[in-house]
Specification:
It contains five helices and 52 strands. By secondary structure, the protein is mostly beta strands. The strands form eleven sheets. The chain has a 22-stranded antiparallel beta barrel. Strands 1, 4, 6, 8 and 9 form a five-stranded mixed beta sheet that branches.
Length: 803
């Protein structure tokens, strides 16, 4: 580690000196790339210098900076889904040039493509990185008509679904909590609505999503598997728009426009299911109204304001709030439950240009996730709640000293508050509450430096270092237990008192070796630390799963990943292909012990954890078509995911529940004409693993199962075909009001495949004492595994509109 760190700082120092020398007698071309129609910034747009054979991509705010010797240059600017531009610039001084691109979906008959997209997948040092536009997401067949970014990313190589119809996902053998999910810089701790069958992201409010499954850049931290960075729309600076959709279970409405034209814009977007509105009238007339009041619904709200202070300063204020609400009461009134949960996030960002080469983004962020479960059973009330919230400030600088060299550096600080499994209850005159599951407070800070530069015409290097600190502090009361689970003593820590502090150096390195103009080989290795952990009682995004910090007992997770890949493009970048091979090793993995009871009020939840290690490896293949009426991709992943815990499975290694040997996804989108678009998605996956009994024994006529090794049984394979059809309603004559609409039909599981959701053992027969009795005697009993399938063929229809 020390050797790597020294090498890193030597390289960074030499790069800085080289930057200073090469920046002399040069001029900078810089600016923003935007959408012509609404002035939205276009992140990751390619700005390419034809004469030099080099270029750069815009950052997440659409800004680019190119420093070159004086002269005349031909500039190509392109972005997927937009008509490219080509023009000549006479660079004899520092020049600011903002560029507008026109979407090819606005008026297809007038669009002429004048340039080609730069082959960034071959040229860059990035591995396992994909940019997904919302247009792609909305074209793919959608479950129940709801376009969903979290389900779309499950179709990429290396990403595995948590289950049938679920938005939870696993990346390269890592658990779901090892994925960093951001919405405008705010961490989203739970991505699921409707117990995970829909995500919290409303596609109408989103602009773009970046997914990184390979080497994580130093600018990201706090997780050890992947990054899903979601950006919200900024609002239309030039005109007011209203768009939305009405589907079978939910409706959406988005309003955006200029508060001051070309100066300040706002966007507001909302979505709500109306299952409760449809079922409430029916429940009032069923069984004499005994089921009235039972309901479930979810909703979410997105909002954003962006204000252009000057050509060098801009402010953004964005927010998200979403809730799921479930209420149930049995007909007799003996049992009631209210179960709300949800996320909230707010981000204030300030962009500032110190110079044409130095860009700063400052973010102040608040985010939280929490749930409550209020139950009432036979005059016994029990309330369970959990919450995690963060307050964060971060700054990131981007410096482009010359073409082919980009440095990023900055810092971040977060104050975390954890309320794990707070419990209260009342039974008659007796009350009780959790005695040791107290609020936990922590500080987390990091600094990072990242340098991406062309070392030679054929070698590009991205080297970085992230230094992180995590401090678990008081006030806190820790109950000490003996080996029998009896409380012995209580340790009390004062407010602000240090309980445990962790430090880490997290090096990152990736290199691109250019083979020829259309192909390259990439190598990458990263070390990551994770101080916040999700301890799961299930493999879905159920909101009862618990987020806990690193403490004196719970050590931070650590992961090292190394990968190598070959990337090649064909036919002017029309086709992208890649093969990546990876190996990942994980330390301090966390699980509930085999006898743990989550929600136990007598002991701190971390007393029920067990710790182990894991490793995973595999190969990923991708073929992607970017241009033409027919687009799409084929991805295939071959992988293994192992875990080893001393107190689980007798200390022997076992395959993780989400071990998936084969995972194949085929995505096709075809534009027949200006009215009709069709799409199809085929998914095949090796069955997930589970633990089933291998034998049984009887005690007083009761069946007791003996379970086999952890995850020894592999469920049947999974396969599914989804179809989508979209008909655009285009007026024959232009109208004063520009109104567009389409009808979208999706068919989920088109050939009605009964895929396994879970398995259970069914016992039937007679062991004595009369028919179907399980007491006394010794007769025959039959066991069989029963499969539960969740979704048959599900057609849906949605009407979308835009004014």
């Amino acid at each position: 580690m020390k050797f790597f760190t020294r090498i890193l700082f030597c390289v960074c120092f030499l790069a800085a000196v080289s930057s200073s020398l090469q920046a002399q007698n040069k001029f900078t071309l810089s600016g923003y790339v935007k959408d012509t129609a609404n002035a939205e910034s276009l992140l990751s747009s390619a700005v390419y210098i034809v004469e030099l054979g080099k270029g750069a991509n815009t950052n997440e705010f659409g800004f680019y900076s190119l420093t070159m010797p004086p002269g005349k240059y031909t500039i190509k600017v392109s972005y997927v889904g937009y008509a490219s531009k080509m023009f000549v610039v006479d660079l004899n001084k520092d020049t600011r040039l903002n560029i507008d691109l026109k979407s090819t979906t606005v008026d297809k008959e007038e669009v002429v493509i004048t340039g080609e997209r730069h082959d960034n997948n071959v040229e860059s040092t990035s591995m396992g990185k994909q940019e997904i536009s919302m247009e792609q997401v909305k074209t793919i067949p959608a479950f129940m008509g709801e376009a969903d970014i979290m389900k779309t990313i499950q179709l990429l190589p290396g990403i595995i679904s948590a289950g049938e119809g679920n938005t939870g996902f696993y990346v390269r053998g890592g658990s779901s909590d090892q994925n960093l999910v951001l919405l405008d810089d705010a961490v989203i701790y739970n991505t699921g609505h409707l117990l995970g069958f829909f995500s919290v992201f409303n596609a109408d409010a989103l602009k773009n999503t970046t997914v990184i499954t390979g080497g994580m850049p130093a600018e990201y931290g706090g997780r050890i598997s992947s990054v899903v960075d979601v950006q919200m729309k900024e609002g239309d600076m030039r005109k007011w728009d209203v768009e939305g959709g009405i589907g079978l279970i939910a409706s959406r409405l988005t309003v955006q426009g200029p508060l001051k034209k070309n100066k300040c814009a706002i966007i507001l977007s909302g979505r709500r299911t109306y299952i409760d509105l449809l079922t409430d009238p029916l429940l009032k007339h069923i069984a004499g109204g005994q089921f009235a009041g039972n309901s479930y619904y979810f909703y979410d709200l997105n909002g954003k304001i962006n204000y252009l202070i000057s050509d060098r300063d801009r402010l953004y204020l964005s927010g998200y709030y979403g809730q799921d609400v479930f209420n149930y009461a049995d007909p007799g009134g003996e049992f009631k439950i209210a179960f709300p949960w949800g996320n909230a996030a707010a981000t204030l960002r300030w962009n500032h240009l110190f110079s044409d080469q130095l860009f700063l983004n400052t973010s102040i962020v608040y985010n939280s996730f929490g749930f409550k479960a209020n139950t009432d059973f036979q005059n016994v009330t029990f309330d369970l709640s959990s919450k995690v919230q963060d307050a964060t400030i971060k700054q990131q600088f981007e410096y482009s000293p010359f073409l082919g060299h980009l440095m990023k550096f900055g810092w971040t600080y977060s104050f975390h508050t954890f309320d794990p499994y707070q419990t209260t209850g009342e039974a008659g005159s007796t009350t009780f509450s959790s005695t040791s599951n107290a609020t936990k407070l922590a500080n987390e800070a990091a600094v990072f430096y990242q340098d991406d530069f062309d070392a030679t015409p054929w070698l590009k290097i991205n080297i970085g270092l992230r230094g992180s600190l995590f401090n678990f502090m008081g006030p806190f009361s820790e109950v000490q237990f003996n080996q029998y689970g009896n409380a012995l003593d209580t340790l009390k820590y004062k407010p602000g008192q240090n309980i445990k502090t962790y430090f880490a150096a997290e090096p990152r390195l990736s290199m691109r070796f250019k083979v020829d103009k259309t192909s390259s080989i990439k190598l990458g290795s990263t070390l990551n630390k994770q101080y916040i952990n999700l301890v799961q009682s299930a493999t879905t995004t159920l909101p009862i799963d618990l987020w806990v910090p690193a403490t004196a007992l719970v050590k931070p997770q650590m992961g090292v990943q190394s990968s190598v890949g070959y990337f090649r493009n064909f036919k002017n970048d029309m086709f992208e292909t890649s093969v990546e091979v990876y190996y990942k090793y994980l330390w301090h993995q966390i699980e509930f012990g085999e006898s743990a009871v989550p929600g136990n009020v007598e002991e701190d939840i971390e007393q029920q954890f067990v710790f182990g290690k894991g490793w995973s490896y595999g190969a990923e293949f991708l073929v992607k078509k970017n241009k033409g009426k027919w687009t799409g991709w084929i991805s295939y992943t071959l992988s293994w995911a192992w875990r080893k815990f001393d107190s689980i499975n007798a200390g022997k290694p076992f395959l993780a529940e989400y071990d998936r040997r084969n995972d194949l996804n085929i995505v096709n989108m075809y534009e027949i004409n200006k009215h009709w678009k069709v799409s199809a998605t085929f998914v095949f996956a090796t069955g997930q693993r589970t633990t089933l009994p291998v034998s049984y024994y009887l005690i007083q006529g009761q069946v007791n199962y003996v379970y086999g090794p952890r995850n020894w049984y592999q469920m049947p394979d999974y396969d599914r075909l989804d179809l989508g059809f979209t008909y655009s309603i285009i007026p024959k004559k232009p109208k004063k009001i520009n109104f567009h609409s389409d009808i979208s039909v999706s068919v989920y599981n088109a050939y009605n495949r009964m895929n396994p959701f879970f398995l259970y053992i069914n016992a039937s027969g007679d062991v004595g004492g009369g028919a179907n009795s399980l007491s006394g005697g010794s007769k025959s009993i039959t066991f069989s595994a029963k499969q539960v399938s969740l979704f048959p063929i599900l057609p849906s229809i949605t009407w979308n509109f835009k004014i």
